[in-house]
Amino acid sequence: MKAGQTTCPQQPDQTPDPARCFAVFFTSGSTGLPKPITKTLEQIESEVTIQDPLWSPMISPSARVVGLVSHQHIYGLIFRVIWPVMSGRIFTADPAPFWEMMQGDLKDGDVLITSPAHLKNLHPGLADIPPPSLIFLSGGPLDYKHAQATRDMFGTCPIEIYGSTETGGIAYRRQTSTETDWTPLPGVTPRLNVKGCLAVQAPHIAKADWYQTEDKADIEPTSGKFRLLGRADRIVKIEGKRVSLSSVEQHLIASDLVSEAVVLLPDENDRRLGAIVVLSDAGLARHKELGTFRMGRLLRRQIAEFEEDAALPQRWRFVDQIPTDSQGKRPLHLLRAVFEQRPTEPDILETVQTDDQVALKLRLREDLIYFVGHFPDMPILPGVTQLHWATSYASSMFGTPETTSEVSQLKFRKPILPGHVVNLEMRLDTSRLKVKFRYFSDSDGDLSSGILKYDGDAA
């Protein structure tokens, strides 16, 4: 956020007109390009006025407002600075972007202003801090699992604020179940347009005008509560077909193997869908068993029950957490950066397996990390990489140990080059103490071979 030009009077004995005082926030949106959003002090004060009666009865007069988010974000400015000033509460001046920077200073009953990224990165030491009275977050989605983990650790379910830089706060919820709807803030009226997208009206948003969002929703007519159904503008064309990225994400998250997922086009010039996935505990176990390629194929088969072929991701990245910026949002440029990382595994085009033999057909992409610097003018696949793949795939397919006690009869006959399609054949010895492997191609014959040997106890 940058402060905009202000027309507030400069004389100290004059009260500034809130409608003429404003700040300009620069939001990156999804592209990373700055977009200026002007907010008047009148709008900000109006939002605080409608929210304060909701939360103040749950907070002791001595409670402090402690921020883990920056005041340069509109949510951080309103909750960390403007709200405590208007309500006469103590607040910490400097944000503590990491739990470790503030957990030793917390007092019983403090109010925490956090982001989804903070609540997805709880650590056991936080169980010993004085319990907060309320925890707020905004700026991105929080899944039910992490909402409950927060409640279990701190004794209070976090309050999520839904809105945007353009609108300010629209609604709130505390996820007591996976079906918790959003409740509009006092004075906020919701409705749907002909495309099923949410529009809202409130004094702090657009006064008497309606503000149209791109969020699809379902509104309960009596209460006005609503459920968000994904972004209407997250539609892409692949192979001439319209594909809803939100729909593909929802089908992925419905799998018991997946905790979180984001689906996108990693590159405007490459119309193959990509998926960034955080696996569940069950998913991590399957990924260890199957490897990246086969895990992606498994998830594709699950999605295929609901989506057409054009909507099935072809590029997969399995990560510990979805990339976010400092405000907990997921800008497109950060998500695309995940796919710019060079792959470490070949594409497995075909797998044929029996009890004691496996045949893999591998395509060696030119951007494999192992071709970098080996060698600059004539890249070839290093022998150590060939050995590593043989050991890793043998472990995945046969259940052999991930490390060997000895490698014998190792021979490298011909170089393996970028872009080549090669075959890896592995045969398990009946004693389960060794695996014979060889790389070969249809055109060049044998490329390399060797025997992996294992300790008897390990095997």
Automatic annotation (TrEMBL):
Residues 10-186 form the AMP-dependent synthetase/ligase domain. One of its GO terms (molecular function) is ligase activity. Keywords: Ligase. Transmembrane segments: none annotated. Residues 353-450 form the ApeI dehydratase-like domain. It comes from the Bacteria. InterPro entries: AMP-bd_C_sf (IPR045851), AMP-binding_CS (IPR020845), AMP-dep_synth/lig_dom (IPR000873), ANL_N_sf (IPR042099), ApeI-like (IPR054545), ATP-dep_AMP-bd_enzyme (IPR050237), HotDog_dom_sf (IPR029069). PANTHER family: LONG-CHAIN-FATTY-ACID--COA LIGASE (PTHR43767), NONRIBOSOMAL PEPTIDE SYNTHASE PES1 (EUROFUNG)-RELATED (PTHR43767:SF1). This is Acyl-coenzyme A synthetase/AMP-(Fatty) acid ligase. It comes from Thalassospira tepidiphila.
